[in-house]
Amino acid sequence: MTGTPELSFIHRYDPATEPGRPPLLLLHGTGGDEEDLIPLGHAVSPGSARLSPRGKVLEQGMPRFFRRLREGVFDEEDVRRRAHELADFVAEARQAHGLAAPVAVGFSNGANIAAAVLQLRPEALAGAVLLRAMVPLRNPPPADLGGKPVLILSGSADPIVPADNAKRLASLLETAGAAVEHRVLPVGHGLSQADLTLAKGWLDRL
Known about the structure:
Layout: E1 11-14, E2 24-27, H1 38-44, E3 50-53, E4 57-59, E5 62-64, E6 68-70, E7 73-74, H2 76-97, E8 103-107, H3 109-120, E9 127-131, E10 149-155, H4 163-175, E11 179-185, H5 193-204
Parallel strand pairs: 2-3, 2-8, 8-9, 9-10, 10-11
Antiparallel strand pairs: 1-3, 4-5, 6-7
Helix pairs in contact: 2-3
């Protein structure tokens, strides 16, 4: 199902087929769309409801969830605005589809906006799988993540995300009270089978 008109993002929604699985909020990377992470969502949590919005920002025609000034440098004012916008969409979708708070599964730009939502609107998410995430806000406001589970999967050979940046994100979320598991895999920026295996095992334990 794509693009329910009364909701604020173009999106795809697939209802749950297995009771008890957490709903997933699937957040694509630069150039993706609402279809991009549907197979990933099915692989890591078969039977979960899947809510997959399309980012509203275009960079040379490629959808993203917020603006950046250049590679690795974010427009933080836009990050904040778009994080609130996404959290509002999650609230709309939860009401429309009768969903519990979802676990975000985000890749790259999608992981970064998920991290920003955790920092700015923690009530919107039940947790998050952040694949190749960076620090979205240099000075986030105080947040109480109250033990929310967060899995961060980084690549040791990632040319886009510096290792110390991913560590700082893990530290920021932990300081805010999240239960963070941070794993560094021997891969680059792209996803690997190890990402799917670790994410599935982690989600199975929720």
